[in-house]
Amino acid sequence: MRLDNQLAAIGHGIAGIHREIHDHLFQLPRIYIFCNIHPEMSAVVVTLSTPHFATTARDGTFQINQVPPGRYKLETWYELTSESDLAALSREFEITSGDNALGTMTLHSSDAPHDHLNKYGEPYPLDKKSKY
Question: For residue 14, is it left (φ>0), alpha (ψ between -120 and 50) or beta?
Answer without folding.
Answer: beta
